Amino acid sequence: MRELELVDDPKAALEQLAAASRTTPVVVFKRSPICPVSHRAEAQFGEWLESLATDAEVAIARVDVIARKLLARGLTAELGVQHESPQVLWFAQGELAWHDSHDALTAERFRSAYGSR
Questions:
Q1: Where are the beta strands (DSSP E) in the chain?
Q2: Could you give the count of Cα atoms lying within 13 Å of 62 in the half-sphere of its Cβ?
Q3: How far is CA 69 from the centre of its chain?
Q4: pTM value?
Q5: How confident is the model at residue 116 (pLDDT cuts 50, 70, 90)?
Q6: Rounded to whole angstroms, how far apart are CA atoms 71 and 14?
Q7: Which of 32, 54, 61, 65 sits at 20 to 30 Å (Cα–Cα) from 75?
Q8: CATH code at 81?
Q9: Is 90 helix (H, G, I), strand (E, B) or coil?
Q10: Strand order in the sheet with 59-64
Q11: How many domains does the chain have?
């Protein structure tokens, strides 16, 4: 697993995500640092990450929707997806493969998405 730092420009960030996801899945985890639902989703995300092997083929990008508002909203606008928080944007083979939000963000759902790659 590796951390991916996204550039601030949403179009450039999408190009970055598309390129990176051609070789390995890329998971963008958007969350608010002040939202209890985001904290629960982040705990589930963390549980899934901890269950991965240390050499797992996946890249992770975390986006604070308050600190990086333009990026957070710009990514979803460019993708034609409603902005939500917490939210996951899962990229594979250069494209958005899955997105979901709120209570759908469970460790089991992450395992399922990763297993189906």
A1: 2-3, 26-31, 59-64, 87-92, 95-101
A2: 13
A3: 15
A4: 0.93
A5: low
A6: 10
A7: 54
A8: 3.40.30.10
A9: strand
A10: 2-3, 59-64, 26-31, 87-92, 95-101
A11: 1
For residue 55, the SS3 value is coil
Q: State the pLDDT confidence band at 114, using cuts at 50, 70 and 90.
A: confident
- The count of C-alpha atoms lying within 13 angstroms of the C-alpha of 51, restricted to the half-sphere facing its C-beta, is 15
Helix axes 69-79, 10-20, angle to 10 degrees: 70
pLDDT band at 28; cut points 50, 70, 90: very high
Instruction: Quote the CA–CA distance of 42 and 17 in Å, as a whole number.
Output: 21
Q: Dmax of the chain from CA atoms?
A: 34
Percent with pLDDT over 70 in the chain: 98
Based on the number of CB atoms within 10 Å of its own CB, is 106 exposed (0-12), middle (13-18) or buried (19 or more)? middle
Domain that holds residue 10: 2-115
Give SS3 for 26: strand
Q: How many whole angstroms separate alpha carbon 58 and alpha carbon 51?
A: 13
Tell me the C-alpha distance between 32 and 13, whole Å: 19
